């Protein structure tokens, strides 16, 4: 098989190149079987010493997702409100607005936690999250990693409420749902990324 054949009509590459972060969703619920498949794809990521430390909390209750968004905003503001970093100041304004919904009214929120016995839980769970977003896209489901929700992971009351032990580490808050409209093409990527080929 030629290299051209390997590259054209390659569904894996097409899926990778066409995935976008999605921030507008239809209200249509995502079937549980699809969510289960997304989780399964996460568990097929590689992990250091094969620890497979990923643990998932799936939230499908929109009211709760909205409440968690508000809780995350409060936690984030507590950490960064006084920051002099100009880039952070823009975010402080965004996070202070009542209108800001950091989860974009998504119908599904999946929190990816690393278990305490992990060897490199942050890396493992990030790889799982990448698999999950690509798997979702391949089934017509949009996704976005919401780093702005990270404060939830260090909120003991929140962890207690969702039944996650305090020593589990939140790595990836991910939202999923059916995209409202056809997503635009992926933004051009910086192609100047290879430092050197050494032969
Ligand atoms: C670690 C991480 C944190 C992110 N946090 C947010 C976030 O809080 N809110 C958001 O809208 N997008 C967030 N994103 C999505 C990025 O903005 C997005 O991936 C980037 O702009 C590239 O666009 P693309 O995913 O469509 O290729 C995050 C992505 C990553 C990997």
Structure commentary:
It is globular, with a radius of gyration of 18 Å. The protein has one domain: NADH Oxidase, CATH 3.40.109. It is of the alpha+beta class. The chain has helices spanning 3-7, 11-18, 32-43, 62-80, 86-96, 121-138, 156-162, and strands spanning 54-59, 108-114, 142-145, 169-177. It has seven helices and four strands. A four-stranded antiparallel β-sheet has the order 1-2-4-3. The chain binds flavin mononucleotide. Flavin mononucleotide binds next to strand 3. Residues 20-21, 23, 144-148, 186 line the site of flavin mononucleotide.
Backbone structural class: alpha+beta
Outline: globular
User: What is the CATH topology assignment?
Assistant: NADH Oxidase
What is the strand tally? 4
Strand neighbour order, sheet with most strands: 1-2-4-3
Give helix % range. 40-55%
- CATH top level is Alpha Beta
User: What low-confidence regions span 5 or more consecutive residues with pLDDT below 50?
Assistant: none
How would you name the CATH homologous superfamily? NADH Oxidase
Query: How many domain units?
Result: 1
CATH architecture: 3-Layer(aba) Sandwich
Rounded to an integer in angstroms, the radius of gyration calculated over CA atoms is: 18 Å
Terminal residue distance: 25 Å
Which cofactors or ions or other ligands sit in this model? flavin mononucleotide
- SSE order in H/E notation? HHHEHHEHEHE
Mean pLDDT: 95
Strand composition percent: 5-15%
Number of helices, counting only DSSP H or I runs of 4 residues or more: 7
- Main sheet summary: 4 strands, antiparallel
């Amino acid at each position: 098989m030629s290299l051209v054949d390997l590259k054209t009509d390659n569904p894996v590459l097409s899926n990778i190149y066409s995935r976008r972060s999605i921030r507008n969703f239809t209200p249509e619920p995502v079937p549980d079987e699809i969510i289960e498949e997304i989780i399964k794809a996460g568990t097929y990521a590689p992990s250091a010493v094969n620890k497979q430390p990923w643990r998932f909390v799936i939230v499908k209750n929109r009211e709760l997702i909205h409440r968690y968004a508000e809780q995350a905003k409060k936690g984030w503001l507590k950490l960064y409100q006084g920051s002099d970093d100009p880039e952070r100041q823009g975010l402080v304004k965004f996070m202070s607005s009542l209108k800001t919904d950091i989860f974009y009214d998504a119908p599904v929120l999946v929190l990816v936690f690393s278990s305490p016995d992990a060897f490199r839980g942050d890396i493992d769970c990030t790889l799982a999250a990448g698999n999950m977003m690509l798997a979702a896209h391949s089934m017509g489901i949009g996704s976005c990693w919401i780093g702005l929700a990270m404060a939830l992971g260090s909120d003991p009351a929140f962890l207690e409420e969702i039944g996650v032990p305090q020593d589990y580490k939140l790595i990836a808050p991910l939202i999923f749902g059916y995209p409202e409209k056809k997503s635009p093409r992926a933004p051009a990527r910086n192609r100047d990324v290879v430092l050197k080929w050494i032969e």
